[in-house]
Design brief:
14 helices, about 20% strand, FAD/NAD(P)-binding domain, 7-stranded mixed beta sheet
């Protein structure tokens, strides 16, 4: 019987954000952890260009870091963003607050710095050993042997494991090895949009070139530019745009992102579509030349475990597109949930894995769907005056009915309400907003008594609501 209590060492594949946080939490629980990472130690070299999309740290992620005892360290380099700063051509910027309270903010954090902090914390436990330059090549399942290609010696390394957990991202090598022995029911839905990272450095005075208290967004219908602040007073900007097919209305007549290759064309595009941002990007030509185009996809699995000894979590089990800022937060929440499933050390790993999957599968599918939906909101809906009226009504109902009516964005970002519940209640609330705004152009025309009756009937107070 493969019991938790009999397990001395847990092997983790992938020392990214989820893998390194999980190593911290398991080490603190008393397990020995062997953590394998295909790349070199990022703390000893510069992160690859164009791959450091800033991350939005939300309540779920902050709770996980707090559980690991390192939130105070991470907070030294995070910046609060209180809303979206909307940049329309020919108009002054407009702030769209995320929530109704001062504490309803999301936190901009730098991926590489956060990952380094987690790696330091894992090593500091004294129970984690990290193997860099080890790329998982295969699994010998009958002998529970992981086979790695090593970059340091250009050789093969074999590692005997008791339990192995894949936190190795959307292209998970462990997932591929598990598929040979188990039908995971996995699927990959590629989004025909990609991204390129750009930079807004400090201004001439060494200060932020934009308001650092907001996520800046330049929505253009079929595409958009966003920018998040960094602790060094620069901004990391990201251009999201359709790939290949161009010359159509969706991309404003421009070619697709992977066909926008000539600098003269790139410059015209940026000047015409983002005239406020263009002067703030002195290294734009270099960014277009050196920063690769990133691809976007949703990965889903119906089965996350195999052979009572292997488990997937984070992006390896459920990669999502970045438009709700929840990929990292969902992965961190996975780590906390797995630790909750280990409360009874006499349980078998199979029962732990099944309980964990039951807790997280529906929630992962829900956030995947919400992330896809939010892309259209970010690049298009936020420009619509009707969206602003709808958002104002949503906030007013939140104020009048705390704990009952909670905007779906707020449920996802500022609460730890399960994603699946947030999705279901969000649909109910959307129907109410549709009814209330029929033939109304302003919220002072809304029938709030009708709203109250509906909310009392359909939206009970949520347990664990964080007011």
């Amino acid at each position: 019987m493969n019991r938790v209590i009999d397990t001395k060492t847990i092997t983790i594949v992938g020392a990214g954000l989820a893998g390194s946080l999980l190593a911290v939490l398991l080490s603190q629980r008393g397990f020995k952890v062997e953590l394998f990472e295909r790349n070199p130690d990022q703390r000893k070299q510069k992160a690859p260009a164009g791959r450091s999309i800033n991350l939005a740290l939300a309540e779920r992620g902050r709770f996980a870091l707090q559980q690991a005892g390192i939130l105070h360290t991470v907070d030294r380099f995070t910046l609060p963003m209180r809303g979206r700063m909307l940049h329309e051509i020919g108009k002054p910027p407009v702030l769209q607050p995320y929530g109704i309270g001062e504490n309803e903010v999301i936190w901009s954090t730098h991926r590489a710095r956060l990952n380094s902090t987690l790696l330091d914390a894992a090593e500091a436990t004294g129970n984690t050993r990290i193997h860099f330059g080890h790329k998982l090549h295969d699994i010998d399942w009958p002998h529970k042997q992981a086979i790695f290609e090593t970059t340091a010696k250009d050789s093969i390394a074999e590692h005997k494991f008791e339990v192995i957990i894949g936190a190795d991202g959307g292209g998970s090598a462990l997932r591929e090895a598990m598929k040979r022995i188990e039908d995971l029911g996995d699927s990959k839905q590629a989004l025909n949009h990609g991204y390129r990272e750009l930079t807004i450095p400090v201004d001439a005075n060494g200060d932020f070139a934009l308001d650092p208290g907001a996520l800046h967004i330049w929505p253009r219908g079929g595409f958009m530019l966003i920018a998040l602040p960094n602790s060094d007073r620069s901004f990391t900007a990201t251009l999201f745009m359709r790939l290949d097919e161009g010359g159509n209305e969706e991309v404003g007549g421009w070619p697709g992102l992977n066909q926008l290759n000539d600098w003269q064309q790139q410059r015209r595009f940026m000047q015409q579509e983002f005239p406020q941002a263009f002067p703030l990007m002195p290294q734009l030509e270099r960014d277009f030349k050196e920063n690769p185009i990133g691809l976007l996809a949703t990965v889903r699995c119906k089965q996350w475990h195999a052979r009572q000894c292997a488990l997937l979590l984070g992006d390896a089990a459920h990669a999502v597109v970045p438009f709700h800022g929840q990929g990292m937060n969902a992965a961190f929440e996975d780590c906390v949930a797995l630790l909750e499933c280990l409360d009874d050390p006499k349980e078998t790993w199979l029962s732990v894995f099944e309980r964990f999957q039951n807790m997280r599968l529906d929630n992962s599918n829900a956030i995947a769907d919400m992330a896809l939906e939010n892309y259209a909101i970010m690049r298009e809906s936020v420009r619509d005056p009707a969206f602003m009226v709808r958002k104002a009504l949503e906030h007013e109902l939140e104020r009048r009915h705390p704990g009952q009516f909670i905007g779906r964005y707020s449920m996802v970002m500022f609460q730890r309400i399960p994603y699946a519940l947030a999705y279901r209640r969000g649909d109910i609330q959307a129907g109410l907003l549709d009814r209330l705004l029929t033939d109304c152009s302003a919220i002072d025309e809304v029938d709030f008594e009708e709203a109250a009756r509906f909310i009392d009937e359909r939206l009970p107070v949520i347990d664990g609501y964080n007011s």
